[in-house]
Amino acid sequence: MSDLLSRFQRECGPGTRFTSVPGDTSPGLTVLADDHATLVVNHRATARTVRVAGARVRLEGYEVRWLERG
């Protein structure tokens, strides 16, 4: 958990400008991105496959995942 919070602080610190990411906008999914990374959070207890920035991403229940942006 501390790794997740440390990365969040690095990637999303004060002054971060967030950008939209094309993809799934279904309920129970949060996508937060800047120019370098994307944070994807599945708020549901069940696994699901979503599309983020053109890529299919499988998330387990309540999974939080960082994706690199190119």
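(ticket continues) Second input and output from the same batch:
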Amino acid sequence: MAALAGKLLDKKGARLPIIIGIIASLTSLILMNVLAPLSNLAIVLLYVLYYGGYGMCFGSLMTSGLITLGKASHA
């Protein structure tokens, strides 16, 4: 998901991949809680959706945060 988020980040800015990632993660968490007795396949698919959203959000947040740092703060 980082590659997709990076492409969206380059074209549209940091806001879109962060929002998509948060929505995907929250949707999967809500579905896991609402549909408590799930099959193994459903758990795996919702888990993939959760971490896909997490990957989109985290990579974009890190990139956006590093852009705001000055040259003196870079490693």
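Agent notes: The mean pLDDT is 88. Residues 7 and 29 are 26 Å apart (CA to CA). Closing as not reproducible unless the customer responds.
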